[in-house]
Design brief:
- The protein has 246 residues and is α/β, with parallel strands linked by helices.
- It folds into two domains: 68 residues, no CATH class; 158 residues, 2-Layer Sandwich (Zincin-like), CATH 3.30.2010.10.
- A four-stranded mixed beta sheet has the order 1-2-4-3, with helices on one face. Strands 5-6-8-7 form a four-stranded mixed beta sheet, with helices on one face. Strands 9-11-10 form a three-stranded mixed beta sheet, with helices on one face.
- Helix 3 crosses helix 4.
- The two termini are 36 Å apart.
Length: 246
Amino acid sequence: MDTAMPTNTNFTLTVRGVVIPYTVEVRLNRVNAAIQVMAGGEVKVLAPHGFSAEQGLEMLRDKADWVLKHYMQRRAMPVKDFVSGSRFDFLGQPVTLVIDQTPGYLVTEVELMDESDLTVRCTQGQLVDPATIRDLLAEWYRAETERIVPERLNEWAGYMGCQPTGLRINEYKTRWGYCRPDGLIAINWQIIQAPLEALDYVLVHELAHLQFPNHKNGFWKTVGQVYPGYEVQKQWLRRYAASLQW
């Protein structure tokens, strides 16, 4: 009999002789389970409450070839290091993390300098462990998303002749955005790292869901009419998703 598991549980899956470690993470707000392969090859099953270890293993076995392919590809990708010199992206352009510890500096802040240096300023001796730097960067990226996305969403909504009931900016592990039945559109702040063309594709995609709640032919026809060549951006996001999610 299947039994529910604790919040985070570690397992292994063997595919064609390759042993793949994976974690099942139970998320109380999830409805359906999803598989995520991160940069560095970290594999996760994001599961709803009540999901069992047996269900997780069955799900991975059903997609074994896909899991193996992405595990091998993304294992070669460098994992983000939150130290000076690490590379990040902003609107498709590379930026370099700079941690500036100045004696007596009272306010911790993040600023993009000369469009190339993403500088974290803090006082000398202040704790700047990777988790703290990650949180500071995430806060800055989210603020930039809140600055840029509303205007672009309104422009596309006007062009498409529709209007969402609201906009939510948040962090999502397996999607760039979604459109609720009540018309609210949610956007993952991590998309602001991608080129503007990819961001616009995500906005058009979610706005199209105001008319089409599914991904059937009518939906993709509308997206193609509004944003010709969207397939290029769709493939770009599939290829580089792992490097943008940290």
